[in-house]
Design goal:
By secondary structure, the chain is mostly helical. The protein is 86% helix and 0% strand. It has three helices and no strands.
């Protein structure tokens, strides 16, 4: 593996970590309060579908930064989406 591919992977891991961590406070708050009234159902449907496609894209590329970050974010998004559907 050449050094540019390695540095590209690290950039991917850093970006993936930051974007996944940015989503954690919303997921934590939603799980803690169970309050989903201010969340848009359409937004979470589209967001969750988009994350699922990013995960599939990462799998197709064999890109671990994309796979790991989107798998983690997808779990959180599905939990929030289920709460939104359940509680309105």
């Amino acid at each position: 593996m050449n050094s540019s591919a390695l540095s590209g992977d690290w950039l991917g891991y850093i970006a993936a970590t930051l974007t996944t961590l940015a989503f954690v406070p919303q997921a934590w708050r939603t799980l803690r309060t169970r309050d989903t009234r201010s969340l848009s159902l359409l937004m979470y449907l589209l967001f969750t579908a988009g994350i699922a496609f990013w995960l599939a894209y990462g799998v197709a590329l064999g890109s671990w930064p994309i796979i790991l970050s989107n798998a983690a974010t997808l779990v959180l998004a599905v939990i929030i989406l289920a709460e939104k559907i359940r509680r309105g």
